[in-house]
Amino acid sequence: MLISLNRKTVLTFYLSIVRPCFVYSQTNMSSGSIDSDKYSVVYVTVPNDEVGRTIGHGLVKNKLAACVNSIPGITSIYEWKNEINEDKETLLMIKTRTSQVDKLTEYVRSNHPYEVCEVISVPIKNGNPPYLKWIGDIVPE
After folding, report:
1. Which residue of 15, 39, 82, 84 has the smallest Cβ count within 10 Å?
2. pLDDT in tens, 30-40
3. SS3 helix, strand, coil % of the chain, rounded to 5?
């Protein structure tokens, strides 16, 4: 059975049904930027794995982070007190809400052995929507 459709009917169908479904699927099923800047990744260097684990557990326990990845064995080269230094460190990659970065920074500063600790945050511009939602479910506003 063939159905005869005019141009106006096809265009109306496309604009009201097909296109909205396509746009919705693109923002919710693929990598999306629906909540751009709502979540952040925070980088913190620590002198060793033990300090990293202590800070990481504290951040998650206190609901300041949903996840902390501890990446051992990085080499940091930096100037401190007019000297060039090179040290082995561990990098913490922390996922949180952007609204919690100040509290997270304060927690790290209070529990970190360095005189001046590195705490750098970068907003997550795009990501897997279910993962971003999970961060939001774990870390309160």
Report:
1. 82
2. 556 656 789 99
3. 40, 30, 30
